[in-house]
Amino acid sequence: MARQEVEGEPAESAGSTLRAGELEVGYIDVGSGVPLVLIHGGEGDRTAYATLRAHLGSGIRAISYDQRDSGITVNPPVPYTLGDLGDDVVDLLDALGLQSAHLLGTSFGGAVAQHAALRHPERVASLTLVATTPSFALGADSIDKLLNLSYGDLRNAVDDYFVTPEGQARIGARAAQTLVSRDPEQRARRHAAAREHEIRDLLGEIAAPTLIVHGTEDLLAPYAGAVLMEQRIPNAELRSIEGGRHAVGMEFADRIALWAREFLGVTAK
């Protein structure tokens, strides 16, 4: 297993790489205890969970990683699907020597987690799905509008789409700072994968216990999708954040970390 320290990065965003399947994957592996893989959103990377990680506390081994075309991961310049990204999660578990792990995915990362659970049920101990959807089509108009913006315009739009007015006053520009730049080819591959996401008819096949966390005013992943997931996933629970928008994982990180700890059965902190 190849492992390489990455130098010259701030302490919070420092990471290493390891060989996982055909990829050289950037990752951050902190803490000990219950393994929890944090799967970032469509425009983020492994560093996007700094706020949530700070609230997770002891007893959890929090592992975040760079998906294809993200951060310091090196992948072939070819198209891929969300199924491929789900398989990448399992390749990461293999590289880390983990037979199974709990998955927490936000937005696009929640879609990746769903596909991992469908394709590899024996490797997924549980799912925590934050601000995500079972179908791109449910939020297609709003998502396409954002995906077609330049990075500069996207950063300017993030607050209104992602954070409540109260949250904007409290966390400032932190949500926008989690956005990372990609070249046009990388961006196109990720957007193409996102647009193919459609598993509404497969939700009943998800075997993992599932915690769904969703803001009632999410403009990109409509709340109706969260309700549908709770209804169709056999062992699912929905916890709503009244008025929450798309960045609930950051704006309400303390609350979500507490819920995640309870869900994973990690009570001491």
Secondary-structure class:
alpha/beta
Shape: globular
Low-confidence stretches: 1-12
Element order: H for helix, E for strand? EEEEHEHEHEHHHHHEHEHH
Oligomer: single chain
- The counted number of beta strands is 9
Largest beta sheet: what is the strand line-up? 1-2-3-5-4-6-7-8-9
Largest sheet: 9 strands, mixed
Percent range for β-strand residues: 15-25%
Mean pLDDT: 89
Radius of gyration: 17 Å
Specify the number of helices: 11
Head-to-tail CA distance between termini: 33 Å
Helix content: 25-40%
Task: Describe this structure in a few short sentences.
The chain is built from 11 helices and 9 strands.
Structure description:
It is a single chain. This protein has 269 residues and is an alpha/beta fold. Helix content is 38%, strand content 20%. It has eleven helices and nine strands. The chain has helices at 50-56, 82-96, 108-119, 140-147, 151-162, 165-171, 174-177, 184-195, 223-232, 248-251, 253-264, and strands at residues 3-5, 16-20, 23-30, 34-39, 60-65, 101-106, 124-130, 210-215, 236-241. α1 packs across α11 (253-264). It is globular, with a radius of gyration of 17 Å. The model is unreliable at 1-12 (pLDDT under 50).
